[in-house]
């Protein structure tokens, strides 16, 4: 069913207004009714409070009257035990007067135990004396505090009783009970509140002349009311048509008026005898009419607001909606290409206030013009559509040729694997007729894996599957493919599996070649270091016996240097072939690096190993013929071996021990072999070197193993310390000292001496910089080994360290040691000249040992020359040494240098050196090496340091 947007909008907004208006009216009605109910509830509370206040006031008045009555001489002088009848007559006479004057209906005297003594009362009002006495007795038993108390008693009527204790002249205690009916309370309630109050009681069975007060339907009688006749008439009429429970729960309509009956509670007051019902009657006619008027006004105002809002809505909505309808009509003409008629529908009009509809009209006009232009263009271009279709056909043919000539293998098939189409590359490789793709697989496992993945693809678990497979082509050649499959739709909309394959045959072969290279040496064709580690690991995991053999080619570097690397490669290849011919099938041979080979022999004992090594040593003593020079080059090897379990249970232990055995074989001469012997002293030295090497490497990384000590050098003539020599100390992990004579040669043998020298340089100069900042002024002499001095970058390292720590070069003395090991003297001379030119001082150590040292005096830029300690020991008792020392000192002085004497152990030696002209002294007498300069100065006692004068 078609409905205009205009009416949809009007209906929608009307519903919105209706909901808003209904919500407002409902809220106003709810608040009005709630206010009315609150007023009724407040009126009930006020009536209840007023009733209780009137009862409390009457209780107070009766209590005061009781106290006055108790003072009557007849009561005060009465004898309760001997003459109670006389007291009863007196009370009856007093009651008559009090009834007239105060309205009392009952006066009674009772013992403190509740026994009745005497009383005077209205016999008509209290006809049921037995019920009255029971009520008074119960009230007295309830109140055991001997204090005034009050309660209600209802039978013929309702009265308020007060029990008041008093004392006779004789000192005896008693209770006086007084009562007054509630008629006065009902009248005062009406006077104060302006509302009627009625007291309802059950009907009396015996005839009492009160039949006119009976409310038969309610089984009640009205005893008293503030407006008795009117209330009685109202209640008699209402009880005929309304149940009593309905009366007390709401308003009742009576003779055009709305009466509100409210049942009051006695609260804290006990009622004995018959149960009274206190019922208030108020006329709510005016308040009800006001409520109806208020509710009516709210509804009328809501309806009026709704009508006005609808009128305003129609006024503002109809014109824009008419314009919007015109736009819709114009748009419906566009599919019919009626562009002129559409423009007339949305023709431009005079508009004073622009809005969204105005913009829509403008946009619609623009769209109509653009569509008209496009329609003309489409008509023009449709003429060339046939040509474009022909071009697309040619493009499709080109794509088909392109796919056929692609190096990819492209196949389409049904979800079950039946081949539909394939490109030329696939057809060329597999010319045999194929109905199902799965027939190409070479193994059942590959077929099962293919169908499992294809099921995932068909079920939609994945969009693409990929798998590798081996196929055999028509020529019987195995081809490795990487296939990618996905589901596409063909031109008929059918699900088709598109398979694209890449030939991985060459890549597989390359991977196999790379894997071979990863585990084999390309020069010799045997295993490499990785293969050796793998085979050794397997040996330890799977075998209980075996051996590891290390082979090193002797003088291999000389062969390479003298005859070239091709000859060296020939030697390595021949050794590998000899090893391959000498070992068993279960054995493993490898080339670790350079001229080092290994053999792993499982299942071999010591006797078998010795026989094998002897044979292997003979076979590996071979030769290489030089064709161009018509000569031969001989070579031989050194072999070391270690047995599994006997010489080590871990890879590291076996490698180290086999290597040690190989070095021991080298010491025995060329072409020798050696099985590791834990008790061999030479091997123990090798192990010591190995341990020292590990300790030195660790010390270079940590800060707690190396320690610098300082020994003073004493200027004899000035009697002061000139400078200090830096001495390196080492501790092992247990804290034991390692002597320099042990770790320095080990560092040289293992190629670590340069790192040790650089560590000493950096830490000594850092110490020098720190002390100079605090005001110290001294020079340090640092020992540098021959390998470090022969390195081309030594000057750069030293001067760079001085610059980093901001120390002047004149505060450092470089002490040259081990001159006998200097091979490249020219490099040492150049390096020392560079640091000397920069200001660093140079000292020559151990001068006088060997005649070669004399040649250094003329060539090296020396500042100090240290005399060898062998000439200083026992100097005062050796005249020959004295002559020699004096001669050396004079010669050194002639070159402008100063001599330093080592091993000064006593004062006599120091005095003798002074006589011989030696400038400086060093030894335990001067001061022992200590890690702290301050402690060392205190030990020497030669005063403070003095800057070196060169």
From TrEMBL:
Transmembrane found in the keyword field: yes
EAL domain ranges (all copies): 689-943
EC category: hydrolase
Pfam families with a match to the protein in the record: dCache_3, EAL, GGDEF
EC number: 3.1.4.52
Listed CDD domains: EAL, GGDEF
Stretches assigned to the GGDEF domain: 544-678
Boundaries of every PAC domain copy: 465-516
Cofactors: Mg(2+)
PROSITE patterns with a match to the protein in the record: EAL, GGDEF, PAC
Keyword Membrane set for record: yes
Gene3D superfamilies referenced in this protein's UniProt entry, alphabetically: 3.30.70.270, EAL domain (3.20.20.450), PAS domain (3.30.450.20)
Superkingdom of source: Bacteria
GO molecular function: cyclic-guanylate-specific phosphodiesterase activity
Keywords: Hydrolase, Membrane, Transmembrane, Transmembrane helix
Membrane-traversing stretches: 290-316
NCBIfam families per the UniProt record, alphabetical: GGDEF, sensory_box
Name used for this protein in its record: Cyclic di-GMP phosphodiesterase Gmr
Gene name linked to the record: gmr_3
């Amino acid at each position: 069913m078609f409905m205009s947007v205009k009416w949809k909008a009007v209906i929608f907004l009307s519903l919105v207004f209706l909901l808003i208006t209904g919500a407002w009216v409902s809220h106003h009605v709810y608040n009005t009714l709630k206010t009315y109910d609150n007023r009724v509830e407040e009126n009930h509370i006020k009536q209840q409070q007023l009733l209780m206040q009137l009862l409390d006031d009457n209780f107070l008045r009766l209590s005061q009257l009781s106290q006055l009555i108790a003072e009557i001489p007849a009561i005060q002088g009465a004898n309760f035990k001997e003459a109670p009848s006389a007291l009863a007559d007196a009370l009856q006479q007093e009651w008559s007067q009090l009834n007239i004057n105060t309205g009392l209906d009952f006066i009674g005297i009772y013992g403190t135990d509740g026994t009745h003594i005497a009383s005077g009362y209205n016999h008509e009002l209290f006809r049921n004396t037995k019920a009255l006495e029971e009520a008074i007795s119960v009230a007295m038993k309830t109140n055991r505090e001997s204090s005034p108390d009050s309660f209600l008693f209802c039978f013929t009527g309702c009265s308020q009783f007060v029990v008041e204790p008093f004392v006779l002249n004789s000192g005896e205690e008693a209770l006086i009970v007084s009562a007054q009916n509630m008629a006065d309370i009902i009248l005062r309630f009406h006077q104060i509140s302006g509302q009627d109050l009625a007291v309802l009681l059950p009907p009396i069975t015996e005839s009492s002349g009160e039949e006119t007060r009976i409310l038969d339907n309610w089984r009640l009688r009205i005893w008293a009311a503030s407006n008795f006749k009117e209330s009685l008439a109202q209640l008699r009429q209402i009880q005929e048509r309304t149940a009593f429970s309905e009366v007390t729960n709401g308003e009742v309509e009576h003779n055009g008026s709305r009466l509100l009956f409210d049942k009051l509670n006695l609260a804290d007051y006990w009622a004995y005898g018959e149960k009274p019902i206190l019922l208030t009657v108020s006329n709510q006619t005016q308040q009800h009419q006001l409520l109806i008027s208020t509710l009516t006004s709210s509804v009328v105002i809501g309806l009026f607001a709704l009508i006005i809002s609808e009128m305003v809505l129609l006024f503002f909505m109809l014109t824009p909606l008419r314009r919007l309808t015109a736009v819709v009509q114009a748009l419906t003409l566009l599919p019919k290409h009626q562009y002129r008629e559409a423009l007339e529908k949305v023709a431009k009009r005079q508009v004073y206030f622009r809005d969204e509809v105005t913009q829509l009209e403008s946009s619609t006009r623009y769209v109509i013009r653009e569509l008209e232009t496009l329609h003309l263009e489409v008509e023009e271009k449709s003429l060339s559509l046939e040509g474009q279709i022909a071009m697309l056909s040619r493009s499709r043919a080109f794509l088909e040729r392109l796919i056929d000539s692609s190096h990819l293998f492209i196949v389409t098939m049904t979800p079950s694997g039946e081949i539909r189409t394939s490109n030329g590359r696939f057809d060329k490789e597999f010319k045999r007729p194929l109905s199902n793709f799965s027939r190409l697989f070479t193994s059942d496992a590959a077929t099962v894996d293919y169908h499992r993945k294809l099921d995932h693809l068909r079920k939609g678990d994945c969009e693409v599957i990929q798998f590798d497979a081996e196929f055999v082509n028509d020529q019987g050649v195995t081809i490795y493919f990487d296939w990618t499959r996905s589901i596409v739709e063909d031109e008929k909309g059918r699900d088709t599996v598109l398979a694209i394959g890449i030939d991985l045959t060459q890549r597989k072969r390359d991977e196999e070649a790379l894997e071979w290279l990863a585990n084999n040496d390309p020069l010799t064709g045997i295993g490499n270091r990785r293969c050796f580690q793998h085979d050794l690991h397997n040996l330890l995991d799977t075998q209980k016996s075996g051996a590891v053999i290390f082979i090193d080619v002797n003088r291999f570097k000389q062969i390479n240097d003298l005859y070239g690397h091709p000859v060296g490669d020939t030697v390595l290849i021949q050794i590998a072939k000899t090893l391959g011919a000498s070992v068993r099938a279960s054995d493993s041979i490898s080339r670790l690096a350079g001229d080092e080979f290994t053999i792993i022999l499982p299942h071999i004992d010591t006797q078998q190993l010795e026989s094998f090594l002897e044979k292997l040593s003979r076979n590996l003593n071979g030769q290489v013929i030089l064709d161009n020079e018509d000569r031969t080059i001989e070579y031989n090897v050194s072999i070391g071996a270690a047995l599994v379990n006997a010489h080590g249970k871990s890879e590291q232990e076996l490698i180290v021990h086999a290597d040690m055995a190989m070095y021991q074989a080298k010491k025995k001469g060329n072409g020798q072999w050696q099985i590791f012997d834990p008790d061999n002293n030479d091997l123990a030295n090798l192990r010591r070197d190995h341990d020292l090497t590990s300790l030195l490497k660790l010390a270079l990384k940590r800060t707690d193993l190396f320690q610098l000590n300082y020994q003073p050098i004493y200027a004899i003539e000035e009697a002061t310390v000139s400078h200090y020599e830096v001495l390196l100390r080492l501790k092992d992990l247990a804290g034991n000292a390692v002597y320099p004579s042990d770790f320095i040669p080990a560092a040289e043998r293992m190629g670590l001496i340069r790192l040790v020298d650089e560590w000493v340089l950096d830490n000594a100069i850092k110490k020098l910089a720190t002390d100079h900042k605090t005001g110290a002024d001294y020079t340090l002499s640092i020992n540098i080994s021959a390998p470090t001095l022969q390195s081309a970058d030594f000057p750069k390292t030293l001067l760079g360290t001085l610059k980093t720590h901001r120390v002047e070069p004149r505060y450092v003395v470089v002490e040259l040691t081990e001159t006998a090991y200097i091979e490249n003297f020219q490099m040492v001379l150049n390096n020392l000249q560079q640091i000397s030119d920069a200001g660093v001082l140079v000292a020559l150590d151990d001068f006088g040992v060997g005649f070669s040292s004399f040649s250094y005096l003329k060539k090296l830029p020396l500042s100090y020359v240290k005399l060898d300690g062998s000439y200083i020991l026992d100097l005062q008792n050796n005249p020959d040494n004295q002559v020699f020392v004096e001669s050396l000192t004079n010669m050194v002085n002639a070159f402008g240098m100063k001599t330093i004497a080592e091993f000064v152990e006593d004062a006599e030696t120091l005095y003798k050196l002074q006589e011989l002209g030696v400038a400086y002294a060093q030894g335990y007498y001067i001061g022992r090496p200590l890690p702290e300069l301050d402690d060392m100065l205190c030990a020497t006692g030669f005063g403070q340091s003095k800057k070196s004068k060169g």
